[in-house]
Amino acid sequence: MAHVVCKPCVDCKYTDCVVVCPVECFYEGERMLYIHPDECIDCEACVPECPVEAIFLADNVPDEWKEYIQINADMAPQCPKITEKKTPLCEQ
Ligand code: SF4
Ligand code: SF4
Q: What's the CATH code of the domain at 79?
């Protein structure tokens, strides 16, 4: 099990989540962040930090966003790690 970043993160990319992750398992894509499923320890620290409620436990991902479970697994290993907060895309 792992936590999953879903569609609300697309083109917004607030990064409040990354600074609280104790295992630094967030990765930065061009339009959203991804959580590496092999690294996430399900601590839930990131969930309340996300202002757009984009992060869910894999089991609790809403049906319309189930594809994001695989998208996070596929994309996280291809993207650079992100551990510091940045200006969100929607505010640049
Ligand atoms: S806080 Fe939410 S919207 Fe922002 S980068 Fe993290 S998951 Fe994406
Ligand atoms: S649930 Fe915990 S370990 Fe997983 S991404 Fe969120 S902060 Fe990191």
A: 3.30.70.20
The domain containing residue 40 runs over which residues?
A: 3-83
pLDDT by residue, tens only, the chain of 92 residues:
899 999 999 887 678 899 999 999 999 999 999 999 999 999 999 999 999 999 999 999 999 999 999 999 999 999 999 999 887 665 55
- Number of domains making up the chain: 1
Which residues fall within 8 angstroms of residue 53, CB to CB, at 6 or more apart? 8
- Find the 54 Cα to ligand 1 centroid distance in Å: 6
- Mutate which of 15, 27, 31 for ligand 1? The one with the most ligand atoms within 8 Å of its CB, which is 15
Report which bound ligand comes closest to the CA of 58.
Answer: 2
